Amino acid sequence: MNESTLSTRPSPSTRLSGQVRIVGTGLLGGSIALALRSQGVDVVLADASPSSVRLAVDLGAGRAAEEGDRPQLIVVCVPPDVTADTIEAELLRFSDAVVTDVASVKLAPLFELQNRGVDLTRYIGSHPLAGRERGGTISARGDLFLGRPWVICRDEETPGWVLDRVEDLAHDVGALTIEMTPEAHDEAVGLVSHVPQIMASLMAKQLQKASDDAVRLAGQGLRDVTRIAASSPELWIQILSANSEAVVNILERIQDDLAEITQALRNVDAPGSRRAIAREISAGNDGVARLPGKHGQNRRFASLIVLIDDTPGQLARLLTEIGELGINLEDLRLEHAEGAQMGLVEFSVLPEVVDKLTLELEKLGWRIAA
Fold first, then answer.
1. One CATH from 1.10.10.10, 2.60.40.1250, 1.10.3660.10, 3.30.70.2190 for 188-260
2. CA atoms of 36 and 40, how far apart (whole Å)
3. 140, 194, 270, 290, 298 from 286: Cα distances, Å
């Protein structure tokens, strides 16, 4: 799309009305830019890589930054090891702008800026909990933040108008705002994001020397556990280093649990061994039950697996027929069956409708696996 054809008038529902400067046009920066441009916000793009800016402009994410720009809001979307430097530079260059960043660690850049004596009146750290397995400008999507949490780390000294501007940003890209302290944020993401990355990588590491036959047996469980393992080591070194204390605390608790279950498995017939194993598995049941379900409800769903031919149109037909039955799907996963021209579609539905769905699909000729 040609930049000259893009509207610069914000849509009526858009809260941000001034210019927004995006520093860093990777996955997050590019996605924020695309979301704002789709609503007519004047987005200017800056990046250490000129080619990344040109690509983002070609994708319709905004225009390249110019000397006369006067942004009301600056969003810093750079790697963690240069976040503090970039925030300081942006605050000094644009004296009227509110500055936020989207780094996944909040305490480290804050402490660094405070130690330098930087005036942080116009700065609020924030973090959208959204991403993809692939990074870079080319992976950016304007709908990346829809319905996702966006943490805002204000303090008692934050002026209301500064907070408003960052909240407006999150609202305009479709996110849900959550206020947390930097300390609480880093502890939380250590548990729900940083340690899972380590666990996924360690599990995927075991596949390096696995036999081809073993790998061919891999099902959805292993794919779920290792889905995020294909991440950038360079980026994760920075993230984990910046949040090492919170991560280590969690890893030490997991280490204790692993030691207990390992000892139980060494001698399953010893008194208490089976109880110890059951206790750990049951604790996992309790933990996963706390994960938010659809629309933020802590609700467990029933699963149903349907076999479909691996041919064009089969999945679309199945979804259409379920829709005609008036049954709402809470989640869906698709897996290809090894060595067969078929797929397995796992649906999550409310427990009270699983029997009806099974019966109706069988009447329509679908094969139910489980």
1. 1.10.3660.10
2. 7
3. 35, 21, 26, 7, 11
- Cα–Cα dist 339/239, whole Å: 40
The answer to whether 104 touches 153, Cβ cutoff 8 Å, is no
DSSP 3-state assignment of 267? coil
d(CA 162, CA 97): 9
Q: Residue 104 pLDDT > 50, yes or no?
A: yes
Reduced to 3 states (helix: H, G, I; strand: E, B; else coil), residue 342 is strand
Which CATH architecture is the domain 296-368 placed in? 2-Layer Sandwich (3.30)
59-89: string of b/e by CB count within 10 Å (b at 16+)?
bbbbbebeeebebbbbbbbbbbbbbbebbbe
- What pLDDT is recorded for position 15? 87
Instruction: Please tell me the distance from the alpha carbon of residue 274 to that of residue 265, in angstroms, as a whole number.
Output: 8
Q: Give the pLDDT band of residue 337 (cuts 50, 70, 90).
A: low
49 to 23, 44, 62, 265: CA distances (angstroms)? 11, 15, 16, 53
Q: What is residue 104's three-state secondary structure?
A: coil
291, with CB counted inside 10 A (0-12, 13-18, 19+), is: exposed
Q: Region 230-257: what's the mean pLDDT?
A: 95
Beta strand 342-349 with 73-76 is unpaired
CA distances from 104 to 28, 32, 140, 151, 183 (A): 11, 15, 17, 10, 12
With beta carbons less than 8 A apart as the criterion, state whether 79 and 238 touch: yes
Candidate CATH numbers 3.90.79.10, 3.10.180.10, 3.40.50.150, 3.40.50.720; the one for domain 3-180: 3.40.50.720
| Global model pTM greater than 0.70 | yes
Max CA pair span of the chain: 76
d(CA 235, CA 146): 24
The string of pLDDT tens digits covering residues 210-233 is 999 999 898 888 988 998 898 889
